[in-house]
UniProtKB/TrEMBL annotation:
UniProt keyword terms in alphabetical order: Hydrolase, Magnesium, Metal-binding
Cytoplasm found in the keyword field: no
A biological process term (GO) from this entry: small molecule metabolic process
Molecular function per GO: metal ion binding; phosphatase activity
A Pfam family it matches: HAD_2
Listed SUPFAM superfamilies: HAD-like
Protein name as annotated: Haloacid dehalogenase superfamily, subfamily IA, variant 1
Length: 247
């Protein structure tokens, strides 16, 4: 079977972040609260930061159960409503979120061989797509622009814009449809065994588990085995050529 399309995950695949934890999120909430307070709302930044941090933690736990994505602006609006601020202008919401993500974006770095691999795949006339779980699409586009990645993708599917997170089949359906690709001629490359590998496996896609930054405690489903495993993106094209011989 000829492989025609390769989909990548973003976080801890093409980019990596080894500082994304509750402490870094708390710091980002503090930056958000400072930005919001600058609009002269009668709120103490520490109270807003703590309230939004708790709401985010609750939301992050919930979305890992139902795999439904709510955008960051909606989550912040709910926090503000709980603190008595309804109908906050969109400009204030967006500037506050900009401060939040400016803090977290600084911790992302380009994975070794990411650009080289995308160049190689592009030179092979393969279609390349991105499927990423993220609650703020603008943050993803900023990262793609910062690391000059956007030019490689013919399709960018972000859970914040679809309402569904991987491994939900709906987000894979949208990705395949966007590049007019069938599961049998498509490959998913990602670090999350549940989101990327299990999700793509259920869709009938080929899978490459990039485990360099994978969490060691990740659930490995007994009924799902990745078609290939690698700790280096440099191996992706070689693996794809192997797929074409054996599938």
């Amino acid at each position: 079977m000829k492989i025609r399309t390769v989909f990548f995950d973003l976080g801890n695949t093409l980019l990596y972040n080894q500082r994304l934890n509750s402490n870094s999120i708390r710091i980002a909430c503090e930056k958000l609260a400072e930005a919001f307070q600058a609009f002269n709302y009668p709120v103490h930044p520490n109270e807003l930061a703590e309230k939004h941090f708790q709401n985010l933690m609750n939301y992050y736990n919930l979305r890992e159960m139902d795999y439904i994505e709510h955008s960051a602006d909606i989550i912040l609006s709910h926090t503000l409503e709980e603190m008595g601020f309804s109908h906050v202008p969109e400009e204030h919401i967006l500037k506050s979120l900009k401060a939040f993500y400016a803090s977290t974006e600084a911790n992302w770095y380009l994975t070794d061989y990411a650009i080289d691999t995308l160049e190689l795949l592009q030179n092979q006339n393969l279609k390349i797509g991105l499927i990423t779980n993220a609650s703020y699409a603008e943050d993803i586009r900023q990262l793609l622009q910062k690391y000059h990645l956007e030019k490689y993708f013919q399709s960018v599917i972000i859970s914040a814009e679809t309402g569904y997170r991987k491994p939900r089949q709906e987000i894979f359906d949208l990705a395949l449809y966007s590049l007019v690709s069938s599961p049998a001629e498509s490959v998913m490359v990602g670090d999350s065994f549940m989101a990327d590998i299990w999700g793509a496996y259920k869709k009938g896609m080929h899978t490459i588990w990039f485990n360099r930054y994978a969490v060691s405690s990740q659930l490995m489903l007994p009924l799902c085995k990745p078609d290939a495993v690698t700790s280096s993106l440099k191996k992706v094209l070689e693996i794809i050529k192997t797929f074409e011989k054996i599938f």
